[in-house]
Every structure is written in structure tokens, then in C-alpha cells.
Amino acid sequence: MTHLVPVILSGGAGTRLWPLSREAAPKPFMPLPDGETLLGKTALRATQLAGVGGLVTVTNRDYYFHTKDVYAGLGEHEPRDAVYLLEPFGRNTAPAVALAAHLVRARHGDEAVMLVLAADHLIRDQASFARAVARAAALAREGLLVTFGITPTHPETGFGYVECGESLGERAFRAMGFVEKPALARASELIAAGTHVWNSGMFAFTPDALLAACERFAPAVAQAVRASWQPLSSRADESMLEIDAATFASAPDVSIDYAIMEHAAAQGQVAVVRGEFDWSDVGSWQAVSELTPADADGNHGRGERVAIATRGTFVHAQDRVVATIGVENLVIVDTPDAVLVAHRDHLQRVKEVVGELKARGHEAYKLHRTVARPWGTYTILEEGPGFKIKRIEVKPGGQLSLQLHHHRSEHWVVLRGAARVTKGERVFDLPAGESTFIPIETRHRLENPGHDVLAIIEVACGDLISEDDIVRFEDRYGRVAG
């Protein structure tokens, strides 16, 4: 039996679920009310399927280490044969899937079945999902391009639709066409017809079938992807492949639906499997609120909350008690550096807040107060004109880059563990309770040689306190050009 190879597409800007989702840590990495992430759930769901022979994740360098941390957090279920394909920038799903097809073909052969999944979908019924995948894989082995359809529960304007034609047996149909996100009246008509399903954005096909369709229906995508894959082809057995930016820039920014699936459906080459499983793209705070049980007044939430004369309100309380009195139908999301208060009827406008913050140059659109880095995390404790105080935690074996700053000095105090410090030409160990001073223009590095997390307090002082004032000389995580 040929391998089933899940391909997870992981990225996003984190606009509709701000402030819990940010550009540097978007929806796939956002902790859900149960403490798990959508990315972790997707990887676990995929790797538990029968016949899986590998896992490919298409992401970017900024999310690469964060993704590895999520997978490592799955414990005994961590994917042991994960492969990462790193895009220099997003070009939508058609180039991403076509590149993954080249990789899967090189590693597993033409007849392996790719199962393309978004990193930020939630499916809880594993058994029904597995049955749908098995049916889709069988159709894919017949040479069809397969998409998964979800039976609509209401006239949704935020999803695309697929029309189901002749039966192919076992809840599978010939796809007759695609409808992009329709207006409400049109969405109601589609549901009333009973022949349309939501387009889930999940697919199954062999690399050979997908690449042949790409050559036929999207030759510009095929050409750019071939050029991007060529220098990587000799390294297909490596666990991380980084796509060249200059070559990838020629790839059209286009979705797989628009570039390939719509045209292939017109030629009778697309099948749709109607999933019996539950499905959500968790695309709004309304969807997130439904993941938690409601009280007698229809209130949902997470964390320490007090609700008095409150109805239909969702509260995410992170670091403090959130109390509501005499309000209805609100969504309140409290994080250490930002608070969202929105009426349920206006949740689609959350992305406008992100746009406004971005226009102002405010980092809250992109970063949390605690920021993940390949070596660990840092948390901003306090900042003001000429200073910034951080708590830095370094994983066991983690190492910051060898760097210097032109505009600031730093004072490090070790709270826990033992630090290995490079300062100028000196390298020395610094135990808990001791400190060191790093003058401006001094090459330095912090690393953790121990087996436990290293925690320090960093006090930076100078006329420019920003991440831009970092000159890197060496970095084990590939953040030094050339």
C-alpha cells in the first residue's frame, strides 16, 4: 500500500483573533481553552491516521522553531520523521502545495497520496475524519484531485462552496464547480439547493496528479515552482529545506482553488468527499467562545471571571480577574499588553484594529509581551525612555547569537541556572545570584550549558532600545545572512 503523507500548511497573520493571535505567533500557535494549539491538534490528527509515511510542514523561518516546539510538546506523539519546507514569504497555497508535491514525490514516489491540511482547523471526531481520508485516498489513487466538503449548518458568507454532482459512492461526488465566498442571499440559495458543501481547504491527491494539473492549468506556478525546487532536489532527504527568495519571488500569489481546482473541476477531474466529522476553522472569537461551556446566562470564558447581570458574554482572562456587570453580548479578551472589548455583532472588524496598530507602528499587532525565540523566550517587564527590562529564559542547550549593539549597554543578573557568557574575548560561567555588565559595542553571547531552563533579568540602557539594534556575527539558527 502506498504511503499517506500529510502536508500541513502553517502560517497566517493573526488578525481576526487578536490580541491572543499576533503576526509573530498567529492562530495555529494560539492556545485554545484546553491549553493545546490548533497546530498541535492538526499534527496529532494527521499522524494518527493509518498508513502515514511521513509529515511535511510548509511554513517559514520565523515559525520553524516555534513549530518544532509545538511538535516536541506532543510528547510520545511527536512526529519523528517531520520534514520542513520553509518559504521566504507567502505566495498563497498553489505554490506551497506544488512545492510540497515535488518534495513528497522525491521522498515517497509518484503514487504516494498527499493529504493537504491547514494548520488552524479544528476536528474532534477522529474516527469520522479517518474514514473520510481513507475514501479520499482511494479516489486520489485513481488519479482524481480530491477536496473535502463540509455539510453547511447555516448560510455562511465567509466560506467558499463546492457543488456536488454525480455520486462516486461512499459520500463521494464529482465536483461540478466552486463558488467563492457568496453574499448572504446567494449562500441561502446554495444551502436550500442541498447540493453544495463548504469548501474546507483540505485536499488529497498524488504528487503526479497535482503537478500534471499544475502544468496544465497554472503553467506560471509550475514554472516558478520547478525553478525553486531544482536547487533543493539534491537535498530532498534532509529534514529542513529553505526556498531561495529570489527564485520564489516569481511564483504567482494564487490559491490552489483558483489556480488549479476550479479548472480541473470543469474537466471532471475533481472529486469531493462529504465529511461526516465536525469541522471549524476557528476563524473568529465567536468560534473560540463556543469551545467552552456556557453558564445559565449564556456566558462563556476562560480564567478568573466574575459575571454579574451579564448575558451572552465571552471573557478570556489571562493574568487577572475580569469582572463584568450589566453587559450583554460582548467579547472581552485580556492579555498582558492589550485588551479587546467588542460586541459580538462586530467581531469581523477585529482585523481593523490590527490594521490601525500596524499603521501606527505599534508592536502589539505583531508581538506579545512574551516573545518566542529559537533559543527560548523573553518577556518585557517594563520599558521607558532610554531603558527596557526583560526576563530572558533560555532552553537547555540554547544559545543566543554572537552579537553587539551600537546604542545600548546591558546588565545581566542570573536568577536560575548557570549562564555561559561571552564578553569580548572572555568566556566564563555565571551562576545564579551573580551579574555582569555588557558595554556598548562589545561582542557578547548568552548560552545555557545546563539541563534546566536558564532565567536572567536583562536591563538595557541607551538611546535606542529596539530589536533593530542587533548586529549578529554567528547564529546557530540561521539568522546571519550568508
List keywords for this structure.
24% helix, alpha/beta, Jelly Rolls, globular, 6-stranded antiparallel beta sheet, 27 strands, Spore Coat Polysaccharide Biosynthesis Protein SpsA, Chain A, 482 residues
Topology:
Layout: E1 4-9, H1 38-47, E2 55-60, H2 61-72, E3 82-87, H3 93-108, E4 113-118, H4 126-141, E5 145-150, E6 161-169, E7 172-179, H5 184-193, E8 196-205, H6 207-217, H7 219-229, E9 240-242, H8 245-248, H9 256-266, E10 270-275, H10 285-289, E11 300-302, E12 305-308, E13 314-316, E14 322-325, E15 330-334, E16 339-343, H11 350-360, E17 370-373, E18 376-384, E19 387-394, E20 402-404, E21 408-416, E22 419-423, E23 426-430, E24 435-438, E25 444-447, E26 454-462, E27 471-474
Parallel strand pairs: 1-2, 1-4, 2-3, 3-9, 5-10, 11-13, 12-14, 13-15
Antiparallel strand pairs: 4-8, 5-8, 6-7, 6-8, 7-10, 15-16, 17-18, 18-19, 19-26, 20-27, 21-24, 21-26, 22-23, 22-25
Description of the structure:
This protein is α/β, with parallel strands linked by helices. The protein has 3 domains: 272 residues, Spore Coat Polysaccharide Biosynthesis Protein SpsA, Chain A, CATH 3.90.550.10; 66 residues, no CATH class; 105 residues, Jelly Rolls (Sandwich). Helix content is 24%, strand content 32%. The protein has 11 helices and 27 strands. A 6-stranded antiparallel sheet has the order 17-18-19-26-21-24, with no helix packed on it. The protein has a 5-stranded mixed barrel with strand order 5-8-6-7-10, surrounded by 4 helices. Helix 3 packs across helix 7. It starts with a strand and ends in an 8-residue tail after the last strand.
